[in-house]
Every structure is written in C-alpha cells, then in structure tokens.
UniProtKB/TrEMBL annotation:
<feature type="domain" description="DHFR">
    <location>
        <begin position="1"/>
        <end position="159"/>
    </location>
</feature>
<dbReference type="GO" id="GO:0046654">
    <property type="term" value="P:tetrahydrofolate biosynthetic process"/>
</dbReference>
<dbReference type="InterPro" id="IPR001796">
    <property type="entry name" value="DHFR_dom"/>
</dbReference>
<dbReference type="InterPro" id="IPR024072">
    <property type="entry name" value="DHFR-like_dom_sf"/>
</dbReference>
<dbReference type="GO" id="GO:0005829">
    <property type="term" value="C:cytosol"/>
</dbReference>
<comment type="pathway">
    <text>Cofactor biosynthesis; tetrahydrofolate biosynthesis; 5,6,7,8-tetrahydrofolate from 7,8-dihydrofolate: step 1/1.</text>
</comment>
<dbReference type="GO" id="GO:0046452">
    <property type="term" value="P:dihydrofolate metabolic process"/>
</dbReference>
<comment type="function">
    <text>Key enzyme in folate metabolism. Catalyzes an essential reaction for de novo glycine and purine synthesis, and for DNA precursor synthesis.</text>
</comment>
<keyword id="KW-0560">Oxidoreductase</keyword>
<protein>
    <recommendedName>
        <fullName>Dihydrofolate reductase</fullName>
        <ecNumber>1.5.1.3</ecNumber>
    </recommendedName>
</protein>
<keyword id="KW-0554">One-carbon metabolism</keyword>
<dbReference type="Pfam" id="PF00186">
    <property type="entry name" value="DHFR_1"/>
</dbReference>
<dbReference type="GO" id="GO:0046655">
    <property type="term" value="P:folic acid metabolic process"/>
</dbReference>
<keyword id="KW-0521">NADP</keyword>
<dbReference type="InterPro" id="IPR012259">
    <property type="entry name" value="DHFR"/>
</dbReference>
<comment type="similarity">
    <text>Belongs to the dihydrofolate reductase family.</text>
</comment>
<dbReference type="GO" id="GO:0006730">
    <property type="term" value="P:one-carbon metabolic process"/>
</dbReference>
Amino acid sequence: MIVMIAAVAENNTLGKNNELIWHLPNDFKRFKSLTSGHHIIMGRKTFESFPKPLPNRTHIIITRQKEYHAEGCIIVDSIEKALEVCPKDQDTFIIGGGEIYTLGLPFTDKIEITRVHHSFEGDARFPAINESEWKIIVSEFNEKDEKHLYDYSYQTFVRK
C-alpha cells in the first residue's frame, strides 16, 4: 500500500524555508512508529532538511539533479521510478515535500495526516484532499498541552 504521511495546518501549509513551523513531539513519535522498517519516498529538499538519514528506513530521494548522491540512499528522477523500487508487499510512505505529495497523490491508497488546528504562513503546501475521492476513517483529536502549542488531530483517509 502507498501511504502519504504529513503534518498539515488548517490552510494546508506544510512548512516554510524547508522547515516545519510547529513542534509536536507526539507527531514525531507517530511518524517514527508508522514509517520505521519501511521505504520512505521524499524530495531532495526534504531529505536535506534532516540532520542525518532517518534510522531503520530505506530512503528514496527524487531529484532532477543528475549527479546527486546521498550515502545509503536510492536516487531516482520520478515518482514512478521511486515506486518501482519499493517492495509491493509492504507499506511505502511518501513523506514530502509539497511537490512530491502532489506527484504522489494519484498513486496513494491511504493518507495519514496530523492536522494542526491553526493556519500558518508558509511556502510548501499539501494538495487538497478531494472529498469525492477520499473518506476519513479515523479522526483522533488531541488538545494542546505544555509540549504541544496547538490542538491537532490524527486523521486517516482511504480512497472511496
């Protein structure tokens, strides 16, 4: 199954200047739990925003840069090629950024969203989820607290 996973503001903002705008430790834990042991597909800028490759995951980086190299990662030049190198009998996660989410949406079976209940200014956006194509099957609200400055919900969407 192809799964998109993202933390997204109410106005579909993902981030600004290749960085997250908010800090939600529980979302990081959920991301790690869901993606560990799997192939993760991302754009080059998303990969470069990490201090180092994420442990226990196979990184597939999509880039137009012909000579791009990242130690221990699979480099491809299209979403189709990224999906081809992934095992068909396991979940594969598309983890961003905005352009990769847009390219990957037609191939996606499931979307795991952490919806941050606030609007932010940013330069990366998640594509709109068309309600005629997707249905929400899980929604779990979480209130802000001392470690989380914003209310947020975990939402799971599947194709209708």
